[in-house]
Amino acid sequence: MNKIANRAVMCEVLKEAAAKDKDVVVLCSDSRGSASLTSFADTYPDQFVEVGIAEQNLVSIAAGLASCGKKAYAASPASFITTRSYEQCKVDCAYSGTNVKLIGISGGVSYGALGMTHHSAQDIAAMSAIPGMRVYLPSDRHQTRKLFGDLLKDNQTAYIRLGRNPVEDVYEENNIPFEMNKATVLAEGADVLLVACGEMVKPIQDAAKMLNEQGISTGALDMYCVKPLDKEGLLKAAHGKKQVVTVEEHAPFGGLGSMVAQVISANDPKRVINLALPDSPVITGTSQEVFDYYGLNAAGIVNTVKKALEG
Amino acid sequence: MNALKVKAYDLRQDVLDIIVSGGGGHIGGDMSSMEIMLTLYSRMNVSPENQNDPDRDRFVLSKGHCVETLYAVLADKGFLDVEEVKAQFSKFGSAYIGHPHNTLPGIEMNSGSLGHGLSVCVGMALAGKMDRRNYRVYTLMGDGELAEGSVWEGAMAAGHYKLDNLCAVIDRNHLQISGNTEDVMAHHDLHARFAAFDWHVIDVADGNDVDQLNAAFDEAEQTKGKPTLIIANTVKGKGASIMENKASWHHHLPNAEEYAAISRELKERKEALLHE
Question: What is the mean pLDDT of residues A184-203?
């Protein structure tokens, strides 16, 4: 089992970038520890801004820095940076066109028993609804490194959700297919297509393997780029399939499932099933306990697919 | 006689024309903030020629609804064509919308939702410190705007980081859309409130007086180790008696008769200045 969290990889990449580019700046809202950015702050104190527990200020200050040429990376728990600072993300980042990368750490239900205040199950819907805002949920540490490498090269705003805990590798160290804003094909199959983002990618990868072993030909797609959604890649992968199943660590409305269904229904209509968190505060537990309870694991996905094929 | 004082009345006529042409605008705050923006732009190191220079001074209109005055002042500085603004303001497909938008020359950041400008300016001022540049950063807020909690987040950060390259101005006209600011949400001693956040605070008795404003901006420039707040005590609707100190003129659209009365009084006040 991999022991390196995606957020730790982000810190490594940003430190490497900061060493070469004084315009790379990181901002935290008393969140440097949660974001694994303490070592960035210690190594590059002149390129680090602490704003205290003030997430709206965090985002606006980042936008001001960016308007003066800085590459601003603002990191705060996903629940706060997206919904508490929503207007600052909309106005100061997207609308004003500033190069602020909004890092939502401990996304989804990472905070487990801390409850709904700390869960971000609305972030994909909220951030995707902002014109000009891109939304990325990398699936493992290798993809996180590739994604941040590319984000450092562009000058537009984006929201990136990272989980709190280390997740199992989806990709192998020497084989990390990655193209910016293009979904990654994890498995090919003729009958069923599984689509996921973030921490739900590993479960669909495992589920596809199990289904293929059981004779159900299943493809799997890592849609880390929820916005801009890779429509072309999605339609190509969905072509000829009997059904599409989406899986996400998000509320059932307005997230990956809604967007995939929108594209499929308009272009190549077929059954699309959305697996997501419920429209209610989630049950108390660790991320894995919560996923297992709601069937957001490989076994749950396999069951859903088989039931749907029978029905 | 100060040419800027006279110009303030010419630009008020432009603002009136822009609002009437566009069928709406925030005339009360536009008129109260005229001398503040005009004086600032007469001092700031920013022009159409250096608008992309990293060393230019920056201004963010946090009370974005007073964009009509910003348009008039930017046009006077050569950033915009005032006749084009008058012809197109708020019209279908126009670039001249009712709040600042940075696709237009001379506008740094988009605003309109209150309580953003100060924090954005904190970021700009921090960038200046990081890069050891000498530019100054200014923002203009309304007094009603100060009820937004984010203002105080920005104020706290500016004091904490000792941003002496940052100067905020409050257009203290004592009125907001629902009435007197002290009735809507009292500010009590604004001077003490900002001083408690480690700001240097300057009270300008007449915030519609160019000389008093210039003295305050001089003092702000000379203040080291702290951001400066200028509380500019202004008159909402300044320029014509029918709209002065009247909350109902926050975004009142003058009818033909009112337009004529305001134009006439603006001209009279300008003439009086010329004969001083």
Answer: 98
Find the mean pLDDT for residues A68-92: 98
Pick from A22, A68, A92: CB nearest B116: A92
ipTM: 0.97
Q: How many domains does chain B divide into?
A: 1
Domain assignments of chain A as residue spans, ordered by start: 6-161, 184-310
Give the range of the structural domain holding residue B179, as residue numbers without chain letter: 3-274
Cβ contact, residue pair A60, B150, below 8 Å? yes
Q: CB under 8 Å to A84, separation ≥6 — which residues?
A: A55, A56
Q: How far is A41 from chain B (nearest CA, A)?
A: 15
**CB-closest option in A57, A60, A65 to B127:** A65
Is residue A271 within 8 A of residue A242, CB to CB? The reply is: yes
Contact A65 B124 (CB under 8 A): yes
Average pLDDT over residues B203-226: 98
Instruction: Give pLDDT, residue A311.
Output: 75
For the domain made up of A6-161, give the CATH fold. Answer: Rossmann fold (3.40.50)
Q: Quick one: closest CA in A to B152, which residue?
A: A57
CATH number of the domain bearing residue B114: 3.40.50.970
Tell whether the model's pLDDT for residue A39 goes beyond 80. Answer: yes
More confident residue, A264 or A2: A264
One DSSP character per residue, chain B reads: --HHHHHHHHHHHHHHHHHHHHT---HHHHHHTHHHHHHHHHHSS--TTTTT-TTS-EEEESSGGGHHHHHHHHHHTTSS-HHHHHHHTT-TT-S--SS--TTSTT--S---STT-HHHHHHHHHHHHHHTT----EEEEEESGGGGSHHHHHHHHHHHHTT-TTEEEEEEE-SEETTEEHHHHS----HHHHHHHTT-EEEEES-TT-HHHHHHHHHHHHH--SS-EEEEEE--TTTTSTTTTT-GGGSS----HHHHHHHHHHHHHHHHHHHT-
- Taking contacts as CB-CB distances below 8 angstroms, the residues of chain A near B149 are 56
- Percentage, residues of chain B above pLDDT 90: 99
Q: Chain B closest CA to A301's CA: distance in Å? A: 44
> A248, A195, A249: which is closest to A221 by C-alpha?
A195
Q: Give the confidence band of A186 by pLDDT, cuts at 50, 70, 90.
A: very high
Q: What percent of chain B is modeled with pLDDT above 70?
A: 100
Categorize the per-residue pLDDT at A176 as very low, low, confident or very high, splitting at 50, 70 and 90. Answer: very high
One of 3.30.160.20, 1.20.1260.10, 2.130.10.10, 3.40.50.920 is the CATH number of A184-310, namely 3.40.50.920
Are the folds of A6-161 and A184-310 the same?
yes
Does the beta carbon of A49 lie under 8 angstroms from any beta carbon of chain B?
Answer: yes
Which among B102, B116, B126 has CB closest to A88? B116
Residue B1 confidence class, pLDDT cut points 50, 70, 90: low
